[in-house]
Amino acid sequence: MWGGGMMFNELVLQEEARPLLEEIGVRLQPIYEGYYTADAIETVTTLASQTVKAGATIFNCISAEDVLVRENQVCGLVLSWTAVEIAGLHVDPLTIRAKCVVDATGHDIEVVKVFLRKNQPATLTTPTGGIGGERSMWAEMGERDTVAHTKEIYPGLFVSGMAATATHGAFRMGPIFGGMFLSGKKVAELIHQRLSGEG
Amino acid sequence: MWGGGMMFNELVLQEEARPLLEEIGVRLQPIYEGYYTADAIETVTTLASQTVKAGATIFNCISAEDVLVRENQVCGLVLSWTAVEIAGLHVDPLTIRAKCVVDATGHDIEVVKVFLRKNQPATLTTPTGGIGGERSMWAEMGERDTVAHTKEIYPGLFVSGMAATATHGAFRMGPIFGGMFLSGKKVAELIHQRLSGEG
Amino acid sequence: MWGGGMMFNELVLQEEARPLLEEIGVRLQPIYEGYYTADAIETVTTLASQTVKAGATIFNCISAEDVLVRENQVCGLVLSWTAVEIAGLHVDPLTIRAKCVVDATGHDIEVVKVFLRKNQPATLTTPTGGIGGERSMWAEMGERDTVAHTKEIYPGLFVSGMAATATHGAFRMGPIFGGMFLSGKKVAELIHQRLSGEG
Amino acid sequence: MWGGGMMFNELVLQEEARPLLEEIGVRLQPIYEGYYTADAIETVTTLASQTVKAGATIFNCISAEDVLVRENQVCGLVLSWTAVEIAGLHVDPLTIRAKCVVDATGHDIEVVKVFLRKNQPATLTTPTGGIGGERSMWAEMGERDTVAHTKEIYPGLFVSGMAATATHGAFRMGPIFGGMFLSGKKVAELIHQRLSGEG
Amino acid sequence: MWGGGMMFNELVLQEEARPLLEEIGVRLQPIYEGYYTADAIETVTTLASQTVKAGATIFNCISAEDVLVRENQVCGLVLSWTAVEIAGLHVDPLTIRAKCVVDATGHDIEVVKVFLRKNQPATLTTPTGGIGGERSMWAEMGERDTVAHTKEIYPGLFVSGMAATATHGAFRMGPIFGGMFLSGKKVAELIHQRLSGEG
Amino acid sequence: MWGGGMMFNELVLQEEARPLLEEIGVRLQPIYEGYYTADAIETVTTLASQTVKAGATIFNCISAEDVLVRENQVCGLVLSWTAVEIAGLHVDPLTIRAKCVVDATGHDIEVVKVFLRKNQPATLTTPTGGIGGERSMWAEMGERDTVAHTKEIYPGLFVSGMAATATHGAFRMGPIFGGMFLSGKKVAELIHQRLSGEG
Amino acid sequence: MWGGGMMFNELVLQEEARPLLEEIGVRLQPIYEGYYTADAIETVTTLASQTVKAGATIFNCISAEDVLVRENQVCGLVLSWTAVEIAGLHVDPLTIRAKCVVDATGHDIEVVKVFLRKNQPATLTTPTGGIGGERSMWAEMGERDTVAHTKEIYPGLFVSGMAATATHGAFRMGPIFGGMFLSGKKVAELIHQRLSGEG
Amino acid sequence: MWGGGMMFNELVLQEEARPLLEEIGVRLQPIYEGYYTADAIETVTTLASQTVKAGATIFNCISAEDVLVRENQVCGLVLSWTAVEIAGLHVDPLTIRAKCVVDATGHDIEVVKVFLRKNQPATLTTPTGGIGGERSMWAEMGERDTVAHTKEIYPGLFVSGMAATATHGAFRMGPIFGGMFLSGKKVAELIHQRLSGEG
After folding, report:
1. Phi, psi of D94, rounded to the nearest 5 degrees
2. Cβ partners under 8 Å of residue E91, min gap 6
3. Most-buried pick from A12, B172, C79, D47 (CB within 10 A)?
4. Residues of G with CB below 8 A from H80's CB?
5. Which residues lie below 8 Å from residue H31, measured CB to CB, with a gap of 6+?
6. Mean of the per-residue pLDDT values for chain C?
7. Cα C199 to Cα C197: distance, rounded to the nearest angstrom
8. CB contact at 8 A, H101 and D33
9. Contact flag G138-H80 (C-beta cutoff 8 Å)
């Protein structure tokens, strides 16, 4: 998102995402009926700034290389320094326990992939039981489906954003960012329900 | 083509391609019965120069990383900067709509491959319904087949040149460039018919 | 700054910088007399978010490779895509005019270096007339000097932060971030005076 | 030039270069008083196409790694395959004799640099007798000076385009391409005079 | 192990491994009921130092690239210089005969993999007859299973440590090192029995 | 072979290869019953020197990237510069016709692999009809089998040396070079018979 | 030292170093009058193991990128993760205070170099006041001089081992390791005197 | 030399070198008055083969990284594995004593450079006392001078071939190989005289 569409520093968003962005203070310029643009830097930094102030902790420089499992339940992540990974060193990881793990790694769906590869014969709540794979771009379908497919796909493991469409086997979203934000909101609500005993 | 055969800056062409090259002003030297050589630089630059003057727009520095689809129809391309790809950065792409998309990426048939990989169970109009794969070199067969297999292989998606033989599963062309030019001419005619409502 | 000190995601700040950070909404935790810590992600994103909202435009994915000059005056920058630079391509740059150019590139003082290398015998307002070079770390001296040496070092060209100490030949700052913020504030005030006709 | 200014596929040219481009058939669109734009691909390919048709031979895939000298005269080039250089192999070069050698390698002035480095104490016809080095960008001065400094700088060795300003120590040209074309025309005329016994 | 958990230079060990480490002289600090920490450097160097003094020969700078086989029996290793491998050179290897070969290469189980890939249809004494693959992390199970699965999996070929769990298809161990040491002790005992005619 | 066993500059050879090496003038030192050592440099250079003098032409700096086929017959090679391949450039290849093509590329069996990958459903004269794959090292078997499996595996395509064992699915040879030389001699005799109408 | 001389896993040591190695338990084999060999792995690991047990703390995975200074005194180090350096990331360092800093980085004398480069016009207690540079190898002289030149070369900054000869401008040591160990012992004694108020 | 001129596998030689090549059995084809061509592979392999048979030992896979000195005399080389150098590992070298060391490393004159850089203020028997540096190509002068400048340039250190012209500051040789062979012969004679007490 940092570069906007093709490095032009602007993001395009649809009407549905307007309330969410206005709530956190990102300024929108209407371009044509139902679409807005926002400054890419303002959007990313304001989102992250408000997220941290709202109570989230973002661990920079750290990557997840595996998940913790226990009795058919994903229950945490195996963490290592990103720099160690880039440098190609072999250093023992540490772990973090988590009631809910969200894969929001986009096209690459890295967490779901490592989970599936290492825990056969686990089955996901997708049409095939495995990873459907992202289809080519059909923006209207993609925007709608990314929210629809945002869900818990294995006990303790959720997907959101492009990782949701790619896991389900749905169409790729276009260069419009609203669906991604709405997917993020939906997964937050699902987790909130779970943690408060409703989901 | 820039380097000619093995960097010797000369291209070999057969009689069939002579009219096409003479029409755009590339000078040919006969070498033996039915074959000509042309300067590699003159051929490439004159072709591109005349193509642009004829009305084509060539977008330099831009790569196609995916296609747009809609109801079993290829209807455009997902574009990004080539430099972004080489640099390994993650920047959001933009898109372009197109009535006809041609894969002329040679051996690699990059557009057809990304389309097939991401849109199973799509079927191409090839013997296997998928990519046949380029066979080893049999120059006479390759020259003939590259024109024969230049066609629309999926609604909205055409192949030409080496991408046509590689998609069909035909023999590789030899170091002679005529078939490739004639394939390019054929795909242009097919698209012209389509856009004018004939094809 | 993203990683905090040694990737621990926390920044240390001194009392002098507290008002500035509180003004833009970064939360501080006192650690001992006169020192505070702040979350690295919250600090960076809140600073950038507020900067953009205050009217600045940040061009992401773009690098400055040279300056514009005119009659012993720096009057703009030569810009290219960062991705082009990383990819090692040769693409013609574009330019932007500016009444004030600030080098805030840290240790590397990239803008001052390219200016000096290409415009001999230009003289800076430093003790040697050239680049003094950053000395080893002496945190107390560095914090104080980075503000003192934040200034216009050639008509139209300012330095701030670590670029200020490195240009002047002063001691390196320690792993405390207050001086850097105060230097940024000072250079903003100097430019404001200049543009409003006072400096 | 292939990418136009910052990969936007368009070149800007001034009035002075219009006759030259119209003569070879490049189409220009006026943008404002005295300035035109041209398609980058059309300009490069038409120039090269017409250059070859006019009798020049362009050796693709070949690099010059040194010059031939004889009694204080540059009299040819030492050639190797570009691919060999990129691959880092050690292969013996071949040579080509030339009455006039032109360094048109731009900022890098590669031919002049290798000549100077290896033939001390040779002296060029520049203000310092050596390489002045390109100064920062001052478009108006650069456009004018690139033509003025296009000349023979050592018996048998000419400079043109950005190599001319960089060798002389003049200001860098802006993102406007006319001066470069006029410099190319001037060096061609100088060599024509020399070969016909006038220069 | 050199870096401890995530480069913090400390290892965590459980009660079961205490006698083994105390026997060779590694100092342990209790942290909480049943767990100890040890200095990473002290642990690695003391282990290696005592191992060599006890009679083992460690060949540094040498890698195994294949195994020797004879009548369904692994009977040695094909060795080459590690530097040759890193440098990508082609140099002929030498060989070493061995009554017992242990794969203790961790996650990568390099020896078992090369053996299986090259000697189909060999069958291992694992549930699937092939490599089960390491599952995600479940520390309690992993610690227990790494000892249980330490054994001879093909005549002449043993596995220990993470290679044992990865070959069997068991859960990954957590950032606790005791199981690994106990697995090493078990494989040593198995080999001792074999060589003394008991196993 | 240049480095001898593990860079020690010595080759080990068995009695069977002695006559062949003595015939071309390589000096052998007996080490123990039935085995000799030879200087690696002397062996390689004398072999190549005598091969060229005997009438062979070795094209240095050239790689084969594909084969020519015609009616179920391999009938030549597609050639390109090795430097072009290393440099990652795209340059059109040239071709060479051949009555017999020998794959002597060792473990990698590059020619057979490219032939099989591109010409399905071609069948080789091996137990599986495809590539068996090199097994682990069993020196005695490998030495014997490399000669036995040296043959024509498809009309026009021969294998020798390690490529013969790897194609057939036989055991890897040990660090002894005699079998390889005898395999080379056998393939030369097979081709000689073929070309003289006997094979 | 890990690889021994040229990867042969053996170290050669002279009589003078015997007591030191025997004291910490490294086994020596006499080879000829006054010289011994030791296993490389045993020597390195036993040295490190005993060093840690004697009270030293070795921080693995951490590099020194600069020194702390204060009034013409080196008083600590600027530290960063080695992985960050290898990965080419920009992360803020932390610092450690030290009464004595020893440069034992061998040929590269990294600490002394960064100190001198950044703190001109500092003067070392060497013949030139700067870095003399290692001379070619003269083993007898090198062994003797490495101990002689082990000393404090600037207040708070010591050199030992090859860094001592390289800083002073002395001859390189041969492939014998005794002088290096004796130099290490000497620098330890110098620091002990300093810390106990004698040096 | 392996690739011949520009990878064409042929070498050009002048009359003066004919006797030397005929003596060792390299076949020459006259091309025009006083010049011959030879097959590149035949020339290199026959030279090396005959050199080894004549008594020389060539150590493959080994590089010289420094020289041994003693009282203003070069008396040997510091050796390491080439693979270790390419792999960037740190492994202790070994040494070899030599009465005469020849730098025949071509343009790079690696041995002379490392000697000069590390042993200031040593003086060579060249016009400047240091390295003159190779001048641009003047084939006639270069062929003649390479033999003239083949000599002992420091006690125990000789130069031959391109290293001789580059050290002296003479013109570069053209793509003709005779001078290089004659230089090699001359340095062999100089060393023979020295070792037999005449030089």
Report:
1. -120, 180
2. E80, E81, E84, F2, F3, F6, F7, H61, H83
3. B172
4. 6
5. H12, H37
6. 95
7. 6
8. no
9. no
Query: Cβ–Cβ of C41/A60 closer than 8 Å?
Result: yes
CA gap E111, E163 in Å, rounded: 9
Mean pLDDT (whole number) for A9-31: 96
Phi, psi torsion values for G43, nearest 5 degrees: -65, -50
Residue D199 has pLDDT above 70, yes or no: no
Q: In what order do the strands lie in the sheet with H35-39?
A: H10-14, H35-39, H29-32
How far apart, in whole angstroms, are the C-alpha atoms of residue C42 and residue G128?
51
Asked if residue A132 lies in contact with residue A169, where contact means CB atoms within 8 angstroms, the answer is yes
- Chains C and F: 3 or more CB pairs within 8 Å of each other: no
Structure tokens at A148: 């629809």
Residue F39 CA neighbour count, 13 Å, CB half: 20
pLDDT digit string, tens, across residues E60-117: 999 999 999 999 999 999 999 999 999 999 899 999 999 999 999 999 999 999 999 9
If you write DSSP's letter for every residue of B120-153 in order, what string do you get? Answer: TT---SSTTSS-----SB-HHHHHHHHHHT-EEE
* CA contacts within 13 A on the Cβ side of G93: 22
The helix/strand/coil state of B26 is coil
Q: Running DSSP on this structure, what letter comes out for residue G173?
A: P
pLDDT in tens, G29-65: 999 999 999 999 999 999 999 999 999 999 999 999 9
Residues β-bridged to residue H44: none
Cβ contact B95:B79 at 8 Å: yes
Task: Say if CB H3 and CB D91 are below 8 A apart.
Answer: yes
Residue H19 has pLDDT above 80, yes or no: yes
| CA-derived radius of gyration, chain H | 17
Answer whether E92's CB lies under 8 Å from F4's CB: yes
Rounded-to-integer distance, Cα B162 and Cα B152, Å:
15
Q: Are F167 and F124 in contact (CB under 8 A)?
A: yes
Tokens 């045993």 label which residue? G42
Helix E178-195 and helix E139-148, axial crossing angle in degrees, nearest 10: 10
Q: Quick one: DSSP state of residue B94?
A: E
Q: Does the distance separating the beta carbons of B83 and C91 come in below 8 Å?
A: yes
pLDDT bucket at H198, cuts 50 / 70 / 90: confident
Task: Give the three-class secondary structure for D82.
Answer: helix
Residue D22: Cβ within 10 Å count: 12
Instruction: Establish whether this prediction's ipTM goes over 0.90.
Output: yes
Is the pLDDT score of H1 beyond 90?
no
Amino acid at B165: T
Q: Do chains D and F touch (3 or more CB pairs under 8 A)?
A: yes
Instruction: DSSP letter for E172, please.
Output: E
Measured CA to CA in angstroms, residue A58 lies from B6, B91, C3, E142, G101 at distances of 54, 22, 11, 29, 36
**What H or E segment, with its residue span, contains residue F183?**
helix F178-195
Read off the DSSP letter of residue G23: H
Q: What is the dihedral of CA F13, F16, F18, F24, to 10 degrees?
A: -110
Q: How far is CA F42 from CA C50, F24, H25, H48, in A?
A: 74, 11, 16, 7
Chain G residues near any Cβ of chain H (below 8 Å): 1-7, 133-139, 171-172, 174-175
Report helix, strand or coil for G145.
helix
Name the residue facing G61 among A86, A88, A91 (closest C-beta): A91
Which distant-in-sequence residues (6+ apart) come within 8 Å of F65 by Cβ?
Answer: F78, F79, F80, F85, F93, F114
**Residues D165, D141: contact at Cβ < 8 Å?**
no
Query: Which candidate, A10, B84, B61, places its Cα nearest to that of C59?
Result: A10
